[in-house]
Amino acid sequence: MEYLTLVVSGLMVGVAVAAPIGPVNLICIRRTLRFGAVNGFVSGAGAAIGDGLFATIAAFGVTAAIAFIKNYAFALQLVGGLFLIGLGIKTWLAHPHLDDAIPEKALGELLPVIGSTFVLTITNPATMLGFMAIFGGIAGFAVGTEDYGRASLLVASVVAGSALWWGALTFFVSRFRTRMSDRMLEIINHVSAALIILFGAAVLCRIVWERLF
Predict the structure, then answer these.
(1) How confident is the model at residue 102 (pLDDT cuts 50, 70, 90)?
(2) pLDDT tens column, 157-174
(3) How many structural domains does the chain have?
(4) Which of 136, 138, 196, 211 has the most CB atoms around it within 10 Å of its CB?
């Protein structure tokens, strides 16, 4: 029963950290509409890998990594903010067409997208600190415990929960794909780009504010 509770807790954490609408969600939604559910789901794999990395650090109490994230939070957020703005500009300038959604071509582009969502995840120190806070209380699990079996199970459950969210999101979004037109796709592309740029600008404004005040 204890392990079941641990698995359920890990799944809930994975969903909780993946579900808030942000740049990664927008990327997955946009690629699902253009290329289909499988492509959108795999695009979210980078975020799931990033969540797994943070979960590993938190669950195993890797103090050196935790200290690094805290000490270099400014630099990580700066990189993340600039990366978001660059990604948003690139998205805005793109002119996608539904007819271009050739599976072979789409799959060939997945590796850079997975890398992008991974970078977006790991350059957010708030995610790491959030993991630390959550892991400190769920299922009586102590961060840094020597029980590596339970730690591994929790990490696997978090990754599964994150993957579950991306699967559900891309499945439901793909239901609307047949109703899409090039014009609607371009509008979604521009809205996504604008929001991604705003996310990046908000990150940069926050770290400047923290530096000055």
Answers:
(1) very low
(2) 989 999 999 998 898 888
(3) 1
(4) 196
